[in-house]
Amino acid sequence: MKTPEELKEIVKQKYAEIASQTKESGKKSCCGGSDNTDEVFNIMGDEYQKVDGYYPEADMGLGCGLPTAFAGISPGDTVVDLGSGAGNDCFVARKITGPKGKVTGIDFTPEMIEKARENCRKLGYDNVEFHQGDIEKIPLEDGIADVVISNCVLNLVPDKKKAFSEIYRILKNEGHFCVSDIVLKGELPKKVREAASMYAGCISGALQKNEYLGAILDAGFFRITIHKEKAIELPDEVLQSYLSKEEIESFRKSGTGIFSITVNGEKPHASIAGSACGCGC
Fold it and tell me: Please, what's the b/e burial string for 239-251 (b: 16 or more CB within 10 A of its CB; e: otherwise)?
């Protein structure tokens, strides 16, 4: 069992590598397969090409949803994107907030931050900024964001409860978040759970769906809504790096499911934040 710090270092190294690649190469590097194979597992099912604000050079193909489509962002909002990568979701969010809004991207990997800043310079945005930081300790003040978004990143954070607590902290009262992420129903095979590349690829670090939603509730959020859920199929070409043919067949029959969900929750007004259920009842 690797320590949280070891897991973070795996993620940092892997995404530093991806930052130097093209979108297609990034798809091969993320979410399965070893460095010595051409195995590809791309969990990105929502395409950005027709989305306003889409900037192809910022799209590394690493997401598992389209959180901005369900985030309820309004013109003038302050938006924070956790795990902002090369800036893809930040630039889409900026299109919605307009020049009077502000968008801040937080990413753990210095190489991704530099790539995002370069993209931002090319676009000429003066109200989008990027900072290196740990999602378990977000380098932002309390209560500054109207909306927090994240796309297939929180599953990479060892302490999900701490991450949602931090999201709660940086949101304004009555602010809200919308994240796309990977969750499980059932147990992954031990060899898959322990594979470092599968952790960096968003799968083995995923929580059970109920546990994930429980972490959101425990952080104090209410009106928790799943807007979209889709099954993720791990191809045999990926699984065979970790499992025998018989083990793959057993996994297929186990009923274990891997899902991408897009979920949002609201931070209550200060007057009801301390109520027992967080719903003001």
Answer: bebbbeeebbeeb
Q: Are 204 and 192 in contact (CB under 8 A)?
A: yes
Closest CA to 82 of 12, 154, 15: 154
**Residue 278 belongs to a domain:** no
Is residue 280 one of the residues assigned to a domain? no
pLDDT digits (tens, 9 = 90+) for 236-278: 888 888 889 998 899 888 888 889 999 999 999 876 655 544 4
Q: State pLDDT tens for residues 188-235.
A: 888 887 775 665 556 767 899 999 999 999 999 999 999 999 988 888
User: Could you tell me the two tokens for 169?
Assistant: 């902290």
If one counts the domains in the chain, the total is: 1
Domain extent for 171: 4-266
| Phi-psi map region of 278: left, alpha, beta (phi>0 left; psi -120 to 50 alpha) | left
- Tell how far CA 126 is from the center of its chain: 25
| CATH code for position 8 | 3.40.50.150
pLDDT tens-digit readout, 83-119: 999 999 999 999 999 999 999 999 999 999 999 999 9
In a domain, 277, yes or no: no
Q: Global pTM? A: 0.87
Structure tokens at 153: 């990143």
The rounded radius of gyration (Å) of the Cα atoms in the chain is: 18
**197, two tokens:** 């590349």
Assess contact for 195 and 242: CB atoms under 8 A.
yes
Helix or strand (DSSP H, E) at 112: helix 110-123
The secondary structure of residue 217, as a DSSP letter, is H
Within a domain: 251? yes
Q: Are strands 207-208 and 145-151 parallel, antiparallel or unpaired?
A: unpaired
